[in-house]
Design goal:
Two copies of one chain form a homodimer. By secondary structure, chain A is mainly alpha-helical. Helices cover 59% and strands 7% of the residues of chain A. Chain A has six helices and two strands, in the order ααααββαα. Chain A binds a DNA duplex through α4.
DNA sequence: TATTGTTATACTCTATAACTATA
DNA sequence: TATAGTTATAGAGTATAACAATA
């Protein structure tokens, strides 16, 4: 069926000079490759982000993890439910605050995180192959200044 | 209610060094400001993109516009319906191919495009204020090489 | 056979409002 | 009063499959 839009074509008129549009295109290309890299793991952006942050701060509260990732409280619930049902993350009562839930990785969660990390690192290498080390640093630096 | 996630905080552990994550953050920041800039116009990313491309290539076919923007045929329908119902865009029979529809801006469409362009240009100036002209060029160049 | 526009459908991410139980 | 987690719901973008009309 040769469907639309896998690779948008070049002529996008005035849009091409807008940083916002260039960001959309670049992010979209990364997302596509991200999904490909994680094929078969049933993992997605948001799930990976949560695993990565919990690994770096075991026992962090669910809301705090969401805050750092820019995910709203209401949207964290289903995501952590999913990770919890898959036994990648555990919710335990937080000490000192009976409202809060502290998050921990299970051994399976650690393993999944490592698998994803390896695949994502490989994907980034591939996407950034045309860039020199100085250019990569520049890119990360500019993006970080745009949105810390 | 001091809700979550308007401004994600800094400590995102290993994510912070991933280009994919930096792109997501930067794009997300741009999107938020984009929506703010276009408040009251009932315009969105995709609608603006279509207007901009049709303006630069009047009579282009609906599918071709979608192809250039990375929007699938199936998803173009509702978008062009919306623009058409709002009298910003007209669908006419394409000459030489009775399957295809050629798109044209109405005068209202032209005016709306100009309004959006002005607001978006202002927004980009604001977002890029901390960057030197050389840095802005570098950013656009790197992003374009990442996803032409 | 392939392509154009279309319908129907589903998934992901994001957003808001309101509830509960704690603080 | 405010916060943590939750539920319900909705909008927007993106994806696939299948159909009719046309090429």
């Amino acid at each position: 069926m040769r469907d639309n839009a896998e690779r948008p074509s070049d002529d996008v008129g005035i849009l091409g000079e807008l940083v916002g549009y260039r960001l959309k295109r670049a992010y979209s290309a990364f997302l596509t490759d991200f999904a490909r890299a994680l094929a078969g793991t049933q993992m997605r952006q948001a799930l990976f982000g949560i695993l990565a942050l919990v690994a770096g701060d075991p026992g962090a509260k669910q809301g705090e993890i969401g805050r750092r990732l820019g995910i709203k409280r209401a949207n964290m619930v289903a995501l952590v439910n999913e990770l919890s049902e898959r036994r990648l993350v555990e919710r335990r009562a937080a000490n000192g605050d009976r409202r809060a839930l502290a998050l921990y990785l299970t051994p399976e969660g650690e393993a999944m995180l490592e698998l994803c990390r390896a695949r994502i690192a490989k994907q980034e290498q591939k996407m950034l192959a045309p860039f020199s080390p100085a250019e990569r640093r520049m890119l990360v630096d500019l993006l970080t200044r745009l949105a810390p």
